[in-house]
Amino acid sequence: MIDQGVKEVLWQVMAPGLVVSKAAARLRFLRARGLKLHLGAGPVKLPGFLNVDINPMRRPDLWLDVRGGLPFRDSSVSFIYTSHTLEHFGMKDLARLLAECHRVLMVDGVLRIVVPDLRKAIKAYSERRTEWFIDYPQKFQTPGGRFTNYIFCDAQHKCAFDSDFLSELLAGTGFSQVVETSSGESPAGDRYPLAVSNYERGQRDDRSLYIEGHKGTNGHGGSAKTSGDERI
Fold this sequence. Notes:
Blueprint: H1 4-28, E1 35-39, E2 50-53, E3 62-63, E4 77-83, H2 91-104, E5 105-116, H3 118-126, H4 143-152, H5 163-173, E6 177-181, H6 194-203, E7 208-214
Parallel strand pairs: 1-2, 1-4, 2-3, 4-5
Antiparallel strand pairs: 5-7, 6-7
């Protein structure tokens, strides 16, 4: 894993190229409608999606720093998927990105978010179930060490989320319905892309939090949470 400080320097060095890439994308997708975005795609290329990442070594479909906004028209995107990306942003960047996602989504569009689940991690820590935690990026033996490793990821993570907090952020951004769900499942019905369903089912990830924000016609609203996968 690259040190977070080194990453920030690299992003600054690449800033001019990212500006050009964003400007080109504005022209490229000027008339596009019904796009499906995969933000923070990394090495995962979802078929039928525009796979977006800041790391050019991942060879994304669109090279972009999403902290600077999304180069798409209002109401031009039907679905946004982002997995284990939002926890890497500070609160200001996170709020700006969620607002941008709401802006570009069409009415009835869906933002599906996957992040480490703070509540599940606390429960596992309090029950001293060290086997629940992963050994990346470092390997510790104690519950405290394993909890810290999972939530903060060697200073790579800047935010931690439970369902209430993430629902609050989405509702505050204007999403009319916020729903907690689980891996490979979605209340979005036929709006839940098969590519995402297949990917999530292949991951078999029961440690993460799965939240969907649905954009309604009024641009405002609260949350309607359903029970997610409680297995730990």
